[in-house]
Design brief:
The complex is a heterodimer. Helices cover 7% and strands 54% of the residues of chain A. Chain A has four helices and 22 strands. In chain A, strands 1-3-4-6-7-9-10-13-14-17-18-19-20-22 form a 14-stranded antiparallel beta barrel. In chain A, a hairpin with a 7-residue loop joins strand 15 and strand 16. Chain A is elongated, with a radius of gyration of 23 Å. Chain A starts with 10 loop residues before the first helix and ends with a strand. Chain B has a domain at 29-92 and 102-232 and 329-445: Rossmann fold (3-Layer(aba) Sandwich). In chain B, a hairpin with a 2-residue loop joins strand 17 and strand 18 (378-380). Chain B starts with a helix and ends in a 15-residue tail after the last strand. The chains are: A mainly beta, B alpha/beta. Chain A binds chain B through residues 88-97, 145-149, 189, 192-201, 260-263, 265-266, 372, 411, 416-419, and chain B through 89-92, 95-97, 373-380, 385-388, 391, 398-400, 407, 420, 422-428, 430-435.
Chain lengths: 437, 487
């Protein structure tokens, strides 16, 4: 738990990173967030073989090879959980809690991209965005039936992703970059105990685990290739490496009084006092995207993507308290690799573009792991977009409606022994502005 | 016409195939009868009252199976008026949490029911009682007194001359559970005395009675599920007081020269030829020792005790049982061996009668080792008063414990019958405060000792599991003794 020998980040960078560290609900599968550009979002996120604006730093950095101007693109996504309801079933939590809801606030995820041509064939690109995030917070946290597992689970991340692209031929570009990820996790839950006087379960403490921002980072890399053998057709592929982030943080135990002095005193005697050092590690998965785009007559573009994420790397969640007297949380998550299939369409009217798309995202989360920390599900998403782009500036807006398939743990194996049905839907509005010089 | 006829034939065949398929053959039950002892009746904290009967495992199972009109021999609850026959609960004494009397067993409130009860759990009953007890003596032993209220087969009563099997069969149930055997074995833990044929039913006698019992209820077409006997060291009654001296305030072992100090018992050991001798490893000290420890018994004189041993149980022929509070390793081994034998007979007799077995022995061992994940991050353990599994007598289960048994039974039915009954709602039991409906602050016995268990509580519990064949002579109540520890 010692922090000696760690490099501390400059304060200004921390301030910038904090701006980008928004808690994002995990709308694309798992806790990855793929909505990193409004143009891509309008086209069903099928952008690997298109990658023709500065968000290419994220979607396929090889796409920078054809971008010959210094450009800056800034924007963001507004993610809103439209519906997040849980209906309990026997044996726990039963039907007595009624329908319980996830907190429905909106999250803003900002993005910033820059493209700097260095030579006619070599471009430098920089992206600052948040490709992973989780915000799973429950309303009525003190009454929520799953409060002894999680009331609020948050993963925040900011990536700083410098890349270099090289156009090796008029039809082919390649790119590679480094990926610095700064991340933060929060987990809040209550602790239960049996009140000996009522022989019933009561809340005796609130536990908040909070990682320390400054020392929680990891490094990875990414690469891409884009091939446009003919004007009408392009193929792209990208890869992002796994990034392991080791978090050091603190756990704070706050007693919840029951009103019985003798019992409260007994609880207080056993409750860890002060800030407890805690360590968590998360393996953010590697991913690979394959895409094809076809330019049809009448300024139509069709794009298709198949995206793979190595979620099997997220097979365990271990929250390790330095104090051996406090039990660790060691959860076998057993996620599996997942695929998403995306399709997008664009029709241009001069500088104006109208876009639509669809994607199907498979959840990497096995049913046994579904619970109050995260209940992920397969989902269908429908997208629309609009853009106006000239050589010197551009504006794009998009909207994605995501309908999660119902996830039902009744009668299934459940790590949390927490049974019921989850229903979710979400909406993501995207907007970005580009200036090119 | 010919073509239409063919279509109709295909349609009829498809329909009949569909209805014959498992999709349309969900088993339903119309009548459920539970046979057993105090665990089936829902004794908690040493008494049987409506507050707990409404949460008995048979009642929860009946609800889960959608059985209507499940009747139990309900008994009212009242304020404490007498030192015996009390309902135990947690109370505060001197700022610490201990056990006291919170209410008292009242009178039957459902005694005019014209038919037998669906819950025929009889506190104090062993396998033989369910077979042989045809005429209850309402002033006899525990099983007889409860049978008089539950089987109502007292002389001149509505079911005079009928045993539990016959009353069950009068109801013509299609589902029966049988959980009997704990009193054939675990009574030895309550009396701290393991003697074959005295506190332990012989395996041959148990097998004969159990076979008769399952022959009686295991009629063709009836689903019968039986539960077996837990391990002696899986119950809070034997696991709460450690073998070594603890500081009564911190409950941590007292160390002398860095080593814990064993309590004293009456038997010699390999390293001690003159009693009292330190209790050897593997000895279980029962909750009955609490009040005796408060008198200084079992505590070396050098540490402020009397230096006198805790009593080990014994039997004086022809019929005097002297209960003790110690189970030496050989006694533990004997109880374990008998438990293993009886559970083997339960399994073989059940197999012969097409009944299926729920292994409560394994279930309780698992809970002792790892706790029971009741759902939503709530873990129930076997710890006395604070674990949730056992009631305040440390021997009988709590509402939560009985709800876990009910869940296991419904799960077992679903697995063995291919049904899809909703499991009981554990959350309801977990979060519902279980306190007497009467206003009671609790009556504390000042001599109850560091673990809050008074001599009268122990006596109540022993008499609840004794067959009545023997006279029981308890250690005389001594003067309350204060050790120098923990001051």
């Amino acid at each position: 738990m010692t922090r000696r020998g760690r490099v501390r980040c400059p304060e200004t960078f921390i301030a910038l990173a904090l701006f980008f560290l928004a808690a994002a609900p995990a709308f694309p599968a798992g806790f990855s967030v793929f909505t990193q550009g409004a143009k891509a979002s309008g086209m069903g996120l099928a952008f690997t073989a298109v990658a023709d604006d500065p968000s290419a730093v994220f979607y396929n950095p090889a796409g920078l090879g054809w971008q010959k101007h210094f450009s800056v693109q800034s924007g963001g996504s507004l993610l809103t959980k439209v519906d997040g309801a849980f209906e309990g079933a026997n044996p726990y939590p039963g039907t007595g809690f009624g329908t319980e809801d996830q907190h429905k606030t909106s999250f803003l995820l900002p993005t910033l991209y820059a493209v700097v041509p260095l030579t006619p064939n070599i471009n430098f690109g920089l992206g600052i965005n948040a490709p992973y995030g989780l915000g799973f917070r429950w309303d009525n946290a003190e009454q929520f039936s799953g409060r002894f597992i999680a009331q609020n689970a948050v993963i925040q991340s900011t990536d700083v992703n410098p890349v270099i692209s090289l156009q090796v031929a008029p039809t082919l570009a390649i790119a590679a970059g480094a990926d610095y990820r700064l991340s933060k996790v929060i987990l809040e839950r209550n602790r239960s105990a049996i009140n000996p006087f009522t022989q019933s379960v009561v809340d005796v403490a609130h536990i908040k685990l909070d990682s320390d921002l400054q020392d929680n980072h990891g490094w990875g890399w990414n690469a891409g290739i884009l091939w446009k053998p003919v004007n009408a057709f392009s193929l792209g592929a990208t890869y992002r490496s796994k990034i392991k982030v080791d978090y050091d943080g603190t756990g704070k135990f706050t007693q919840r009084l029951t009103g019985n002095a003798a019992f409260d005193a007994a609880v207080a005697a056993q409750l860890p006092q002060g800030m407890q050092d805690v360590a968590v590690a998360i393996d953010f998965p590697a991913s690979a995207n394959l895409g094809a785009a076809i330019n049809l007559p009448a300024d139509f573009t069709v794009s298709l993507d198949a995206d793979w994420t190595e979620w099997s790397s997220f097979d365990e969640l271990l929250i390790d308290f330095a104090n051996d007297a406090i039990p660790d949380l060691d959860r076998q998550t057993r996620w599996v690799d997942s695929w998403a299939y995306r399709a997008g369409l664009q029709k241009k009217f001069g500088s104006l573009a109208v876009r639509a798309g669809y994607y199907f995202d498979n959840t990497p989360q096995p049913i046994a792991d579904v619970g109050p920390i995260l209940a992920d599900a397969d989902r269908n998403a429908y997208t629309l977009g609009l853009g106006y782009n000239t050589d010197h500036w551009g504006v794009d807006i998009s909207d994605i409606y995501i309908k999660f398939k119902r996830r039902d743990t009744r009668g299934q194996e459940s790590t949390d022994q927490f049974f019921g049905r989850y229903e979710e839907s979400a909406n993501v509005i995207g907007l970005n502005l580009r200036l090119s010089f | 016409m010919k073509k239409m006829g063919f279509r109709a034939a295909v349609g009829a065949a498809t329909l009949s195939a569909l209805f014959a398929s498992p999709l349309f053959s969900q088993t339903t039950f119309h009548k459920y009868v539970a046979l057993g002892d105090s665990l089936t009746a829902a004794v908690e904290g040493s008494c049987l009252v409506t507050r707990h009967q409404q949460r008995s495992y048979p009642k929860l199972v009946a609800d889960a199976l959608a059985i209507s009109d499940f009747q139990q021999p309900l008994i009212s609850e009242r304020a404490v008026t007498s030192p015996t026959g009390v309902c135990l609960g947690a109370v505060v004494a001197g700022g610490t949490i201990t056990v006291g009397a919170v209410s008292q067993q009242g009178v039957p409130t459902n005694g005019t029911l014209a038919r037998p009860y669906d819950n025929l759990g009889i506190p104090g009953a062993n396998a033989a009682h369910l077979v042989d007890l045809r005429v209850a003596n309402s002033t006899g032993d525990t099983a007889n007194r409860f049978a008089a209220a539950i089987l109502r087969n007292f002389p001149g009563g509505p079911f005079d001359g009928r045993n539990a099997i016959e009353e069950a069969n009068l109801l013509n149930p299609d589902f029966v559970t049988v959980w009997v055997g704990p009193n054939d074995v675990l009574g030895a833990a309550l009396t701290g005395t393991a003697i074959d044929g005295v506190t332990l039913t012989s395996t041959a006698v148990f097998e004969a009675k159990y076979a008769e019992l399952l022959l009686g209820v295991g009629v063709a077409g009836r689903t019968v599920v039986v539960l077996n006997v837990p391990d002696v060291s899986a119950i809070a009654f034997t696991t709460t007081i450690p073998r070594v001296l603890v500081n009564p305030t911190t409950r941590q072992p007292v160390l002398v020269g860095g080593n814990p100090v064993p309590l004293l018992g009456p038997r010699t050991t390999a390293t001690c030829s003159t009693p009292p001798c330190p209790l050897p490893e593997g000895t279980l000290v029962t909750l009955g020792a609490s009040a005796l420890l408060a008198q200084g018994l079992g505590i070396p004189a050098s540490l402020g005790g009397t230096g006198q041993p805790l009593p080990d149980g014994s039997f004086t022929p022809p019929a005097t049982l002297n209960p003790g509070v110690l189970l030496y390793p050989d006694e533990v081994a004997l109880i374990r061996q008998r438990t293993t034998e009886i559970n083997a007979r339960i399994a073989s007799v059940a197999a012969a009668r097409s009944a299926t077995v729920i292994d409560t022995h394994a279930l309780l061992d698992e809970i002792v080792a790892h706790g029971y994940e009741a759902g939503g991050g709530i873990v129930i353990t076997s710890a006395f008063l604070t674990g949730g599994l056992f009631s305040a007598d440390g021997f009988h289960l709590s509402n939560i414990g009985y709800a876990i048994v009910a869940k296991e039974i419904v799960e077992h039915v679903n697995e063995t019958k291919g049904t899809d009954f909703a499991l009981p709602d554990l959350a309801h039991t977990l979060f519902e405060p279980d306190v007497p409906v009467i206003t009671a602050t609790g009556v504390i016995d000042p001599a109850a000792g560091p673990f809050g268990f008074s001599l009268s509580m122990w006596k109540d519990l022993v008499s609840a599991a004794s067959s009545g064949e023997f006279e029981t002579v308890f250690p005389a109540p001594g003067k309350r003794f204060k050790t120098r520890l923990g001051r």
